[in-house]
Amino acid sequence: DVQLVESGGGLVKPGGSLTLSCVASGFIFDHYNMNWVRQAPGKGLEWVSSISGRSSYKYYADSVRGRFTISRDNAKTSLYLQMNSLRAEDTAVYYCALCSSSSVCNDDAFDSWGQGTMVTISS
Amino acid sequence: SYELTQPPSVSVSPGQTARITCSGDVLPKQYVYWYQQRPGQAPVLVIYKDSERPSGIPERFSGSSSGTTATLTISGVQPEDEADYYCQSADSSGRNVVFGGGTKLTVL
């Protein structure tokens, strides 16, 4: 079974930085694109960023482009999100997610999610 | 960018049928996916590619899509179906994933 475990969340001051991690298991990690999706308190879901299996392609939502950097270490089956210049509006639960079954989705949706890690931006 | 529009809330009594709509100009061209999210939990995919149900999802969950509107139908609603439901689609490149604003389903 696919397992995704996020970590690295916490309380950071505006303008600060934080790196989130997601350790994956149960599938051949470098065969799959990986994603970060976030959810602000009491709000809806927002796709943040995605990265291809060999890191050839990286995509970002307009709201984070230029401030966040997605990366992965396939040897460690880990996904990362480096977040800089953090703002109050970045406060959210951050989920690691992927499409693990090509019969279900074509990297245009997410059939597997982690439990999320909370990021709070406040002075 | 594009938007997907959902009603903020839907309420039904147990055993009734709940219908949650999702509207967007991209829907005639792209698949819609539906997620259920219970409080404090990660989203769970309940419908994929407009109308398919993943294994393990009860048969009372079904989906349809026609023109610019997709519908998630829950037949014979159970108390445990009370949750937030999100529709989701992507643009033609599959790169720009967009979620609807979510619908809170209340089981009276």
Summarize the amount of helix of chain B as a percent range.
Answer: under 10%
Cα gyration radius of chain B (Å): 13 Å
Total beta strands of chain B = 9
Number of DSSP helical runs of chain A: 0
Oligomer: heterodimer
Cα radius of gyration of chain A in angstroms: 14 Å
> Ranges of chain A with pLDDT <50 over ≥5 residues?
none
Cα(first) to Cα(last) distance of chain B is 36 Å
Globally, the shape of chain A reads globular
Task: Tell me the total number of β-strands of chain A.
Answer: 11
Silhouette of chain B: globular
Q: Level of helix content of chain A?
A: under 10%
Order of helices and strands of chain A: EEEEEEEEEEE
Strand content of chain A: over 45%
Estimated share of beta-strand residues of chain B: 35-45%
Mean pLDDT of chain B: 94
- Unreliable runs of chain B: none
Of all chain pairs, the largest interface belongs to: A-B, 21 and 28 residues
Mind explaining what this structure looks like?
The complex is a heterodimer of chains A (123) and B (108). With 123 residues, chain A is mainly beta. Chain A has strands at 3-7, 10-12, 18-25, 34-39, 45-51, 58-60, 68-73, 78-83, 92-98, 112-113, 117-121. In chain A, the strands form two sheets. In chain A, strands 2, 4, 5, 6, 9, 10 and 11 form a seven-stranded mixed sheet that branches. In chain A, strands 1-3-8-7 form a four-stranded antiparallel sheet, with no helix packed on it. Chain A is globular and about 45 Å long. The mean pLDDT of chain A is 96. Helices cover 0% and strands 44% of the residues of chain B. Chain B has strands at 9-12, 18-23, 33-37, 44-47, 61-66, 69-74, 83-90, 97-99, 103-107. In chain B, strands 1, 3, 4, 7, 8 and 9 form a six-stranded mixed sheet that branches. In chain B, a hairpin with a 6-residue loop joins strand 3 and strand 4. In chain B, 39% of the residues are buried. The chains are: A mainly beta (123), B mainly beta (108). The A-B interface holds A 35, 44-47, 50, 59, 62, 95, 104-111, 113-116 and B 1, 30-31, 33, 35, 37, 41-45, 48-49, 52, 54, 86, 88-90, 94-102.
